Amino acid sequence: MEDKLPDMNTAEEVTSYSRFDHVFVYIVLLLGFCFIRFVLWNVTGFFTTLFFIATMSACLAYLRRSKFHMNKFHIFLCVLILLFSLVFSITANRFIKFLDFNFVTLLGIYWVYSICSEKNTVERFFVFSILKAAIIMPFTDFTRLPKVIAYSSKRSKTSNNIRLAFLGLIVTIPLTLMVAGLLISADKGVKDMLGMFFDNISVKCVEIIMQFMLGIPVALYLFGMLFSNVRKAKKDLLTDEQCEKGLKQLQVTPNIAVYSAVTPICFLYALFFISQVRYFIAAFGGNLPQDYSYAEYARRGFFELCVISVINLMVLVFISLLPKQGGENKPVILKLYSAVLSVFTLLIISTAVSKMVMYIGQYGLTQLRVYTSWFMILLAVIFVLIIIKQFHFKFHIAKYALLSFVIMFGVLCFSNIDRNIARYNIRMHQAGKLEDLDLRSICSTSDDGMLYAVQNGINAGYYLGDKLEMYKSNPYSTYNLSSLQLKRLLEKND
């Protein structure tokens, strides 16, 4: 018969835990160790994919044991987690894998929260939900794991024996080392045997112990997140009603003050656009204005885009949150201001993209050019959604903004950017459309780009250097498809 848990929302402290909790804490400790070893300690790859799949499976088992079930929305999130977990195995691009790690981690945390909260779609106040899921819920029961272990050891004779044996082992370590030192001094044969033994395992042991110790906070976070969500702790915190009430309290600025503050900004944007119209027309026509190099012309577009986008987003937040008349009763003039600012930003984005196309045609692709182009397109989509929101209040902008991001991020992760950069630059150079082939830039991206160069007979020996030796000394760096293929090619040609 399993011990039952009281409601976490009462003042009563939990004094009993289910048998599954007793077992699951050790699974979580193992996952914490694996997180440090296969996600943070070593280069991410096949084992990282397996870690996220194993963690998701463990969380799903805990949730099912706690009588929670998934609806279609939760299954969709589950599929996304599985899909994006594969990114660690299919690319060698560390920046993409860093972004993907953050995405999959947040998505997994939100997945657990949405199942326990019985959500069937993205919430209107999604930002507050993420804050609650990633920070408030896990740290509500951050110290719950050692309490479960302590309770388990008191109730279970086997657990108590394991704990006592472990404590006894720790206590005898100093004495064992002292005896070993005396034996080494007394006999050369013992010295050679123990020396060989410690040479083989000492470094590994220290490394594993460090990884386990660093994994404990990860385990505390993971178990605290699951425990608090399953018990629905803080269920009355940051509800939709509370968020809506809190945002309404910000609506204290008279509308006339908002109009007077925003009008000069819109006027300056209009003047700016008129003064720059010849440069914008040149960008759309693919022509380079006089006294500009391609690099100067493109960088100027990026600066305009970043500054204007940040300013416009800040102004749009101001228009949405602070006026006394806002929300569903938002006046037409405020809607027009929001739409006009969004249109100005879209014009700047479109010209900047045109400039980038000119720049790429002249100098080829690089990672930075791809990332900035991707960001500009994503930003354009967000501003289009903002325009739609102005004329359709019930439009779920958070839902469609997140869906747009997921699709765009999927393109970024699964398109094998570095390989496509290498393919484009090499083919453009072979066709005579790209004067200089920057082989150093291609080989410095990741093994994805380098693999394509080697496969297509490009002489990249100088940039390969001692890569084969690096693979042998650090096998984790080969645990993705591109690096594994590149290693085999190098071994074949060695």
Describe it for me?
With 494 residues, the protein is mostly helical. The chain has three domains: 14-234, no CATH class; 250-414; 419-493, no CATH class. It is 77% helix and 0% strand. It is built from 22 helices and no strands. It has helices at residues 19-41, 46-65, 72-85, 87-90, 94-116, 126-140, 144-155, 157-186, 188-230, 240-248, 255-275, 277-285, 294-321, 332-363, 367-391, 397-414, 417-430, 439-443, 447-455, 461-464, 467-473, 481-493. Helix 3 (72-85) packs antiparallel against helix 5 (94-116), helix 5 crosses helix 9 and helix 6 crosses helix 9 (188-230). The longest helix is centred in the middle third of the chain and has 43 residues, at 188-230. The relative contact order is 0.09. Residues 1-12 have low confidence and may be disordered.
Concise structural overview:
The chain has 494 residues and is mainly α. It has three domains: 14-234, no CATH class; 250-414; 419-493, no CATH class. The protein is built from 22 helices and no strands.
Question: Which helices and strands appear, and what pairs or packs with what?
Answer:
Blueprint: H1 19-41, H2 46-65, H3 72-85, H4 87-90, H5 94-116, H6 126-140, H7 144-155, H8 157-186, H9 188-230, H10 240-248, H11 255-275, H12 277-285, H13 294-321, H14 332-363, H15 367-391, H16 397-414, H17 417-430, H18 439-443, H19 447-455, H20 461-464, H21 467-473, H22 481-493
List the total number of helices.
22
> Using only CA atoms, what is the Rg?
29 Å
Assign a percent range to the helix content: over 70%
State which percent range the strand residues make up. Answer: under 5%
Query: Which overall shape is indicated by the principal axes computed on the Cα atoms?
Result: flat
The profile of the biggest β sheet is:
none
Total strands: the figure is 0
Average pLDDT figure: 81
Count of spatially separate domains: 3
Oligomer, anyone?
single chain
Spatial separation of the terminal alpha carbons: 64 Å
Q: Uncertain runs with pLDDT below 50, 5 residues or more?
A: 1-12
The structural class is mainly alpha
Task: Return the string of H and E elements.
Answer: HHHHHHHHHHHHHHHHHHHHHH
